[in-house]
Batch of 3 targets.
Target 1
Amino acid sequence: MAEQNSLHFIVTQTLRSQEEQAAYYARGRLPLNEVNKLYKLAGLGILSELDNKKIVTKAKTVWDSFHAYGRAFDIAIINSEGKIDWDEAADWNSDGVSDWIQVGKLGESIGLEWGGNFSSMPDLPHFQLREGYTISDLKKGRLA
């Protein structure tokens, strides 16, 4: 379906370390210099003031995220020049529909939960395979 619709994307993250989660959680909550210390510790690139204005996760620890259990991944849309495009309105296949919306629907069509549908904090790059499990179930090791 992605190829039929000329949608191009890459996976940007799968499993996540506690250091990465702490850095992402700090983003938008702590001063830039503190966030960049955490980003450096996690092996991530440094942020600008503008990047640090937006909260990007509600998961305080890695264990509060489906990423910790190998049940989530994040993607990025690739534009016609082969560069990552985070613009929510990106429509590189020129069909009048956001590529993010199309990729989200694609993920849902194969049984994934798409972060773009999260009610309190939509997360367009995020997909997870819940299979009925909650974070509480995963923390307790309740897997069938």
Target 2
Amino acid sequence: MIIFCLRQTTPSRHLLSPVLGDINTGSRYREVYEALDVRPGVDVPCTLLFNIDETHTDMSSNLCLDPVTFTLGIFKRNLRNQPRAWRTLGYIPNQAQHGTKALNKAIDFQAMVSVII
């Protein structure tokens, strides 16, 4: 989860309360929120949500891709649950086809994710 602040000129209804709801209720979100020194009525914390989920591109499941997608946490949950709210940053090819050790596959996977993000 990545959180950054957008400066706005109009007042915001977003105030730090005991229950922010949805993704904003986690302890990590609270830590970052406080570290950013968010000014209620001026700043709007915006969380980036990332998803990586394998998809098969052929009938025998030999060709797989892992799309790296993201959406904004400022969208309401009902919108984030719709495909139109998500954007694809890139694709990670299937590592099973290369016949390398599990550790090397994990290192390669992490390297590809870091390039995409």
Target 3
Amino acid sequence: MAKMDKEKKKQGFAAGFYHSAAWAKCREAYANQAGGLCERCAAAGKIVPGVQVHHKVRLTPANVYNPEVSLNFKNLELLCEECHQAEHKKGTRWRADEDGHVSL
């Protein structure tokens, strides 16, 4: 399976949002505002480039197109790859499919 196909399948219900011009513009603006550094590493005194704009409140089928959740700077943080991976591994014991059904 091609990388783009895997990425779309992984994103499921949010694929359209993550490929939207609104998200691209928001992501770039937020990363610039954050100074391009991982916010968690910077808080710990480390200088590490940020590579992922992360949603603090996870996107769901119910909120993905709600700009107060999906495009709100208060719900975003710029993370390095290590911090982003740690965030998604932390407490992840379930997954939601594209229809919002939860599986363990």
